[in-house]
Specification:
single chain; globular
Amino acid sequence: MAYSIQEAADMLGVNYFSVYRLIQRNKLKVCRALRGKLLVPRTELLKLLGTE
């Protein structure tokens, strides 16, 4: 399971651009879906939230 950037931002309680900064700083790993859309894997989101 994976989430869009906006869904990840909503779960983290931050804005869309904050998630992009996390990705750029290699604090959050993403995968690419069709047409280059970025998706945040559930496991990565849980690691960041500390609820693994």
